[in-house]
TrEMBL record:
<protein>
    <recommendedName>
        <fullName>Pectinesterase</fullName>
        <ecNumber>3.1.1.11</ecNumber>
    </recommendedName>
</protein>
<keyword id="KW-0378">Hydrolase</keyword>
<dbReference type="GO" id="GO:0042545">
    <property type="term" value="P:cell wall modification"/>
</dbReference>
<dbReference type="InterPro" id="IPR000070">
    <property type="entry name" value="Pectinesterase_cat"/>
</dbReference>
<feature type="signal peptide">
    <location>
        <begin position="1"/>
        <end position="23"/>
    </location>
</feature>
<keyword id="KW-0134">Cell wall</keyword>
<comment type="similarity">
    <text>Belongs to the pectinesterase family.</text>
</comment>
<dbReference type="InterPro" id="IPR033131">
    <property type="entry name" value="Pectinesterase_Asp_AS"/>
</dbReference>
<dbReference type="InterPro" id="IPR012334">
    <property type="entry name" value="Pectin_lyas_fold"/>
</dbReference>
<dbReference type="Pfam" id="PF01095">
    <property type="entry name" value="Pectinesterase"/>
</dbReference>
<keyword id="KW-0732">Signal</keyword>
<keyword id="KW-0964">Secreted</keyword>
<dbReference type="InterPro" id="IPR011050">
    <property type="entry name" value="Pectin_lyase_fold/virulence"/>
</dbReference>
<dbReference type="GO" id="GO:0045490">
    <property type="term" value="P:pectin catabolic process"/>
</dbReference>
<comment type="pathway">
    <text>Glycan metabolism; pectin degradation; 2-dehydro-3-deoxy-D-gluconate from pectin: step 1/5.</text>
</comment>
<keyword id="KW-0063">Aspartyl esterase</keyword>
<feature type="domain" description="Pectinesterase catalytic">
    <location>
        <begin position="61"/>
        <end position="354"/>
    </location>
</feature>
């Protein structure tokens, strides 16, 4: 889109107020990849001009709970994104605690959540639903709908934002599953993002996802779902009082290309936790080059009380170190991987990143 078109859009903004319609004659399809530019806004420029279009011609919507932006809520900003948008929309969230339940529907792709670089822990989207809460029909909400933030669309990315669910649970009481972030859209990247909860914190539901330099905190099954995801350079922190588990990857067939791969992550915190529990016969979780503190229980892995899964679950470790990395007490059916066996899980190829990430 050229500059004159951008001008037209600015004028349109004055004529009809927010939201700005995209320039109809010059719509280009959102690029089918995520790059660093998608996680940046030039805050200075955005502030100075009345334009809501940044230097890369993507639209910027500012969320400021104090009223200085385009919306005081995050959901308000999402509501301004046109349905079936063809271009990236950057939602720049100023520091503050946004107490709201947020959902990005599947027909709003190419959305970025961007927080101020130095304020990840102060830019928080927080809600407090748990699985046993009632929905509008009087039934129980269930785990999936407990999410504080739900992303159903593709090509989502986020940086410098905290996703939180404040429900507290002491080791797995029923009905207290409380998701902070649920991602079911395909091709998503999370960079320097924090996800905070207790039981069932991060529902990494479906699709291919990249978590880079993120901080994920919880107690029981706090990363769970059916996705194919790479977690690189992340801090995975247990808040379990006694026992808990990090990953509950769900896979029912040996042909599924899904799995959770943790590479160069730090695993620490409190309690004694499993690296993973087998949800479904073919659950797949791999830890490579990770620092495992003594929070990891010596047995390492759980078959979820279904011994049959011991034959088919794919649970492996490659070159991990730290007090929790001693594999001598591990369940005999987990694997110590060779480099060749670990290789497919070590980089972005595992999530077909070469097709949709340009980093
Ligand atoms: C981010 O926050 C810092 C500290 O409050 C502030 O100085 C800065 O202007 C903000 N914006 C950007 C783009 O860094
Ligand atoms: C591993 O992660 C640490 C910190 O998270 C980072 O400083 C380091 O560069 C990473 N190493 C590799 C080989 O990626
Ligand atoms: C876990 O590791 C992080 C990052 O290295 C560190 O800041 C934190 O203090 C550690 N927490 C515990 C409980 O060891
Ligand atoms: C898992 O394996 C068991 C034992 O073969 C089988 O009975 C069960 O149907 C399998 N579950 C699924 C979901 O395929
Ligand atoms: C895709 C694209 O146009 N990226 C540009 C965004 O703006 C920065 C700063 O002007 C450029 O360096 C990028 O090349």
């Amino acid at each position: 889109m050229d500059y004159s078109c951008a001008l037209v859009m600015v004028v349109a903004a004055f004529l009809c107020g927010f939201p700005v319609g995209l320039c109809e004659t010059d719509v280009v399809y959102g690029k089918n990849f995520i790059g660093w530019d998608d996680m940046k806004v030039d805050e200075h420029k955005t502030r100075l001009s009345t334009s809501t279009v940044d230097y890369n011609q993507s639209r910027v919507i500012i969320v400021d709970k104090n009223g200085g932006g385009d919306s005081v809520t995050v959901q308000g900003a999402i509501d301004m994104v046109p349905e079936n948008n063809k271009q990236r929309v950057k939602i720049y969230i100023l520091p503050g605690i946004y107490r709201e339940k947020v959902i990005i529907p599947s027909f709003k792709p190419y959305i970025s959540f961007i927080g101020n670089e130095s304020q990840m822990s102060n830019t928080i989207i927080s809600w407090k639903n748990k699985a046993s809460d009632r929905d509008s029909n009087g039934g129980s909400l269930g785990t999936y709908k407990s999410a504080s933030v739900t992303i159903e669309s593709d090509y989502f990315c986020a940086t410098e934002v905290t996703f939180e669910n404040t429900v507290i649970t002491s080791s797995g009481e029923s009905g207290r599953q409380a998701v902070a972030l649920r991602i079911s859209g395909d091709k998503a990247m999370f960079y320097k993002v924090k996800v905070v909860g207790a039981q069932d914190t991060l529902l990494d539901e479906t699709g291919s996802h990249y978590f880079y330099q993120c901080h994920i905190q919880g107690s029981v099954d706090f990363i769970f779902g059916k996705s194919r995801s790479l977690y690189r350079d992340c801090l995975i922190q247990s808040t379990a009082k006694k026992c808990g588990a990090i990953a509950a990857h769900h896979r029912d067939s040996p042909d599924d290309n899904t799995g959770f791969s943790f590479v160069n992550c730090t695993i620490n915190g409190t309690g004694k936790i499993y690296l993973g529990r087998a949800w479904g016969n073919y659950s797949r979780t791999i830890y490579s080059n990770c620092y495992l503190d003594n929070v990891v229980t010596p047995a390492g892995w759980s078959d979820w009380n279904d011994p049959f899964r011991q034959k088919t679950a794919v649970f492996g470790e490659f070159q991990c170190w730290g007090a929790g990395a001693d594999t001598s007490g591990r369940v005999p059916w987990s694997k110590k991987l060779s480099y060749q066996e670990a290789k497919p899980f070590l980089d972005m190829k595992f999530i077909d990143g070469e097709q949709w990430l340009r980093l």
